[in-house]
Amino acid sequence: MQVEEKNKKNDLDTSGQSKMIQGSAWMTAGSILSRILGALYIIPWRMLFGEALFLQANALYVQGYNVYSLFLIISIAGIPSAIAKQVAHYNALNEYGVGIRLYKRGLLLSAIMGVVCALALYFGAPLLDGGNPNVIPIMHSLAWAVLVIPTMSLTRGYFQGYQDMAPSAISQFAEQLIRVVYMLLSAFLILKVFHGSWIDAVSQSTFAAFIGALAGLAILALYYFKRKKYYDSLIANSDNKIKINTNQLYVEIISQAVPFIVLASGITIFQLIDQYTFFKIMHLATNYSDQYLNALYTIFAGNANKLIMITISLASAMAITVVPLLSEAYTRKNNEAIKKQISNGFVLFTFVMLPASLGMAAVAGPLNRVFYGTSQAALSANVLAFSSVIGISFGLFTVIAAMMQGISQNKRAVKFFVIGTIAKIITQFPFVFFFGIFGPLLSSAFGFIVANYLIIRSLDRQFGIEYNFISDKINKILVYSIATYITALIVVHLSNKLVGLFMNQYSSVGSFIVVILAAIVGGYLYILLSLKNRLADDIIGNKMDSLRRILKIK
Fold first, then answer.
1. Phi, psi values for residue 172, rounded to 5°
2. How confident is the model over 284-328, as pLDDT tens digits?
3. Could you tell me which of 334, 364, 399, 357 has the C-alpha nearest to residue 514?
4. How far is CA 212 from the centre of its chain?
5. CA dihedral (20, 25, 26, 28) positive or negative
6. 349 touches 107 (CB < 8 A)
7. What CA–CA distance (Å, rounded) separates 169 from 159?
8. Helices H, strands E: what count in the chain?
9. pLDDT in tens, 367-419
10. Phi, psi angle pair for 250, to nearest 5°
11. Average pLDDT along the chain
């Protein structure tokens, strides 16, 4: 009997890990492809605006988008993640009917929130422009996206509650693809064909978020109707023992959703603190012109941030996957499974995030030139390298905050984030005053490190963290990542000399070749070390055998 129970428990653990890895694969693929596409567009977009206008246009874009991001998070209200968590909870109890009712009630709530927040952003734009009237039309164009995205995000949350990550990943990529096509086409027509205003071009580039959202929603609708029969069969075979009235459903959604607003907007809140304080502090510390400060702001808040979000999106993808799995374990009161999921989450995060961040830091110089040209090239490269490293603390917060939500520790997670935000605010002035463009990044890193420490300590005290299991693997990951970083750095220097024999190594094409060579060599080394020493097998599973055969690694 004990052997049977143990085997059953092991099967559940293996199934949970398999679901997490499969879900992470889908969400990581969708998120990374979307982020890469969202970064690649900047190359033709920069060429359309030209070097003279690009930094100013990008500064306007970033300032509008930061405010929009906060309104978007409020309009979404954490409802998708709350729905994913609660649907997973009721599915684990074989109460699929309650899950579909939650989704339908959530749709109405999302529609109302979308309308309210869109109107608030549109009519509140003059109060939120930060003294720059050019930001107002940007916010007006972004308000349209707020109408649609909450419904789209909610539907993604419903699929994720079934641990079905493919619809979310594919719709995310479609949304980004259509958005990029529209923004480049509109910018080309306004600037090159009709010779219009660059502010109008930026406004249409941000309106592209609405067009992309419509495409993403259409993909989700197709998936929903395709799988409707399957969902109906699950509902028909539910236990139907739990009866919840409509008001109770709304209370349940809102009580779960509100903490998600604060935690999901963590990075955005820190960026808004930078947006509304950086210029004021720098005016006190320097005599720089507004135009030069706009350029500096774009370098750290726009350019570097856009690239490091590619690596941070890895963490976000894993965070979304962890929430329903932890919720299932929490519903079953299986503390051992919770402990195991938390430990697996830490290792998986480190396995991907650490080499990605250090790898980006190694190729920061040529990578920055590929995307943003040679304007302020040295400073931009240093900022990107520094941002890549501190981005690890951003990504870690995304993962562990999601873990806290998965085990219904929402209020505690919010409290720890508030303490981290206070730490950010306290250090903001001295760091910006003395360290200039690096100051906002330093204060953000400090704030997230404080919040991360408090959350990890809380998780350890409640469930325990398998430090022996984690430390052994993370030590290997750290060694392999540093080896990858050093190798990529050497390849960058050698490639610069090699490419310089045939063309200008500092041109966009020359820099692209350098980045590709460094990424291939560095990436292959990390994969080789991870496969040869069976680290990848321990973390991802025996599916690595096929990759080992392809690469002919014993």
1. -65, -40
2. 999 999 889 989 999 999 889 988 988 887 666 665 566 667 777
3. 364
4. 18
5. positive
6. no
7. 11
8. 21, 0
9. 999 988 888 889 999 999 999 999 999 999 988 988 887 787 888 999 999 99
10. -65, -45
11. 85
Q: Distances in Å between the alpha carbon of 311 and those of 54, 314, 343, 387? A: 24, 5, 20, 11
Give Cβ neighbours of residue 438 (< 8 Å, ≥ 6 apart). Answer: 300, 383, 386, 431
Amino acid identity, position 501: L
Enter the tokens of residue 441: 């990044």
Q: How high is the pLDDT of residue 226?
A: 87
Q: Write out the two tokens for 222.
A: 């197709």
Question: Nearest to residue 279, comparing CAs of 266, 259, 293?
Answer: 293
Buried b / exposed e along 207-229 (16+ C-beta atoms within 10 A): bbbbbbbbbbbebbeebeeeeee
Helices (H), 93-129: 96-128
pLDDT digit string (tens) for 468-512?
888 889 999 999 999 999 999 999 999 999 999 999 888 889 999
User: Which 3 state secondary structure label does DSSP give 327?
Assistant: helix
Angle, vertex CA 160, rays to CA 158 and CA 141, nearest 5: 70
Picking from 63, 109, 73, 436, the residue whose alpha carbon sits closest to that of residue 249 is: 109
**Residue where the block lists tokens 């930078």:** 274
The predicted model gives 25-37 an average pLDDT of 66
pLDDT tens, residue by residue, 514-542: 999 999 999 999 999 988 887 877 777 66
Closest CA to 364 of 390, 341, 326: 390
User: Which amino acid appears at position 51 of this protein?
Assistant: E
Measured between alpha carbons, how far is 267 from 486 in angstroms, rounded to an integer? 29
- Cα–Cα distances in Å, from 147 out to 111, 158, 247, 534? 7, 19, 24, 48
Encoding tokens for residue 39?
């970064």
The set of long-range contacts for 48-54, using a CB threshold of 8 Å and a minimum separation of 24, is: 48/184, 48/187, 48/188, 48/191, 48/192, 48/201, 49/187, 49/191, 49/198, 49/201, 51/373, 51/375, 53/198, 54/372, 54/373, 54/375
Distance CA 476, CA 538 (A): 12
- Interhelix angle 135-161/96-128, rounded to 10 degrees, is 170
Full-model pTM? 0.78
What DSSP assignment string belongs to 172-239? HHHHHHHHHHHHHHHHHIIIIIS---HHHHHHHHHHHHHHHHHHHHHHHHHHHHHSHHHHHHHHHTS-
Start-to-end C-alpha separation, the chain: 40
Nearest to 388 by CA among 445, 448, 436: 445
Amino acid, single-letter form, for residue 548: R
Residues 353, 316: Cα–Cα separation, whole Å: 11
| DSSP codes joined into one string, 270-282 | HHHHHHHHHHHHH
CA distance 171 to 149: 12
Name the nearest CA neighbour of 80 among 153, 145, 30: 153
Q: How many CA atoms are closer than 13 Å to the CA of 284, on its beta-carbon side?
A: 9
CA atoms within 13 A on the CB side of 19: 22
